[in-house]
Specification:
single chain, alpha/beta, Alkaline Phosphatase, subunit A, 2 domains, ten-stranded mixed beta sheet, three-stranded mixed beta sheet, 16 helices, globular
Length: 526
């Protein structure tokens, strides 16, 4: 982490010209060639600093006490690059030299994200792989590949135990934090089993699935150990009956047909169980004293980070929720497992809206930084990854420092920065960021046979918060991508993340780092 800060400083202090020892090119061309290492060259110095840091790395080969798994939904390598530049430019840098907090983590691997039945995956199957150690079909939560989506009977017969369940069996504390709904696919894999990710409330269950339990009920009635300690996110509507008005949006009601108020059921469990739904309630919770906290901060998903300050009742940031969760979970001397999801990166990508996606990655990175400041990484394994990618691309030949959300402005033939945007073959400028498909397509909604031209776009429009990036294939919702995603890690056993791995390998490293299955088995015999 300190290395990257020093590298950025080296870049900032770099002189435009470099002097070094040379001799004449023996070919007769008269070109100078280096005869000594370019020790005064900025890039040479960066290479040496990086080498020194890597030589000094010493794997932590001990059992972890805690694990925090960070998942930014939809954060593929292209999104990371764009967010890195966006973050740097928001701090007054050119952007490319910037480094996100999680990029400083010393150990890396690449995860293959496909589901057992889909080349390009969905979040339920990918998150289930990371949480259970086995790949499975798209659309199911912690169910093995033996079951078809929607098969309630099959799901009951083929559950896959999650890290959350194993950790509770081992006597650890378990928490989940998300900016999406707490019953959405990725967070649900911490505590639930479902033949369909859409069965979030009882009203979502089809008649033939009457023997199965909705995801919200499974959170409240988590049957292992003493239940979840922390659950923070959105999705209140799945916990409230249809007769009950929402406390924030009083013109709206819950989605439950069974008449149950699951928030009341949570608080009725014990005096230690607290429920909050706004920032006032959240800020009043003393994390060092509370032991059980449910926070549901919106009817559906929480606000995008760019819109959070406009929320009616106020919402905590993902970093604030992460710190509160750590405070509560750290009280358990047996350790904890926490999953933190930046859930709305994915939603912004689906909307073709890169500005909100990149701002949410930035907020997610702030949560990673906050966690690193509040745990001891010699005993806490930190894993940062994504469940899948999207179709975002960084295109054209924009000059260095060009606004990542703006029009592509390249360089002149001599390499000096240009000032005018580059034009495509249709003689119109284009933004640096684009999607392969999505709602930004000029062809969306146009009748077949109509003459369609790509719309003009100004730099001001391209950089606006609501702009939908241009796309090639028309789609009302931009799709996931099938590319590999990066795993970043630090702490005990983090060195085991290396090379290209199947996504379900994440479970196996966490299980090994915590010695989880053995601890759970010992607790079973007591």
């Amino acid at each position: 982490m300190r290395l990257m800060t020093s590298l950025v400083a080296i870049l900032a202090a770099s002189a435009c010209s470099q002097q070094h020892a040379t001799e004449t090119d023996p070919s007769g061309a008269g070109l100078p060639i280096a005869i000594s290492p370019l020790s005064d060259n900025t890039w040479y110095q960066i290479g040496q600093e990086t080498l020194k840091a890597n030589l000094a790395k010493k794997p932590i080969d001990r059992t972890a006490r805690n694990v925090i798994l960070f998942i930014a939904d939809g954060m593929d390598p292209t999104t990371v690059t764009a967010a890195r530049i966006y973050d740097g430019q928001s701090k007054g840098m050119s952007g490319e030299e910037n480094v996100l907090t999680f990029e400083n983590l010393p150990h890396l691997a690449m995860a293959k994200t496909y589901n057992t039945n889909m080349q390009t995956p969905d979040s339920a199957g990918t998150a289930s792989a990371m949480m259970t150690g086995v790949k499975t079909k798209a659309g199911v939560i912690n169910i093995t590949d033996d079951v078809l989506r929607g098969d309630c009977t099959g799901a009951l017969a083929h559950p896959a135990m999650s890290i959350g369940e194993l950790a509770e069996k081992a006597g650890m504390s378990v928490g989940v934090v998300t900016t999406a709904g707490i019953t959405h696919a990725t967070p649900a894999t911490v505590y639930a089993h479902s033949a369909d990710r859409g069965w979030e409330a009882d009203s979502n269950l089809p008649e033939q699935a009457s023997d199965c339990t909705d995801i919200a009920s499974q959170l409240i009635n988590f049957p292992i150990g003493d239940g979840l300690e922390v659950a923070l996110g959105g999705g209140r509507r799945n916990f409230l009956p249809v007769e009950a008005p929402d406390p924030e949006y009083t013109d709206k009601t819950g989605r439950r047909n069974d008449g149950r108020d699951l928030t009341s059921e949570w608080t009725d469990k014990s005096d230690s169980h607290s429920y909050v739904w706004d920032t006032v309630g959240f800020n009043a919770v003393d994390g060092s004293k509370s032991t059980k906290l449910l926070g549901l901060f919106d009817m559906s998903h929480m606000q995008y980070e760019a819109d959070r300050e406009n929320d009616t009742a106020g919402e905590p940031s993902i970093a604030e929720m992460t710190v509160k969760a750590i405070d509560i979970l750290s009280q358990n001397q047996q350790g904890f497992f926490l999953m933190v999801e930046g859930g709305r990166v994915d939603h912004a990508h689906h909307a073709g809206n890169a500005a909100r996606a990149l701002r949410d990655v930035q907020a997610f990175d702030e949560a990673v930084r906050a966690a690193l400041e509040n745990v001891d990484t010699s005993e806490t394994l930190i894993v940062v990854t994504a469940d899948h990618g999207h179709t975002l691309s960084i295109q054209g030949y924009p000059r260095r420092g060009n606004p990542i959300l703006g029009l592509a402005v390249t360089v002149n033939s001599d390499g000096t920065p240009s000032v005018e945007p580059s034009n495509a073959a249709d003689s119109k400028p284009y933004p640096t960021l684009a999607y392969a498909n999505g709602p930004g397509s000029a062809f969306l909604g146009v009748k077949e046979g109509a003459i369609v031209t790509r719309p003009e776009v100004t730099d001001e429009t391209a950089q606006s918060l609501d702009y939908k990036q241009q796309s090639v294939i028309p789609s009302y919702s931009e799709s996931h991508g099938g590319q590999d995603v990066t795993i970043y890690a630090q702490g005990p056993k983090a060195w085991l993340f290396d090379g290209v791995v199947e996504q379900n390998y994440v479970f196996h490293v966490i299980d090994h780092a915590l010695n989880l299955q053995q601890r759970a088995s010992v607790e079973d015999t007591k």
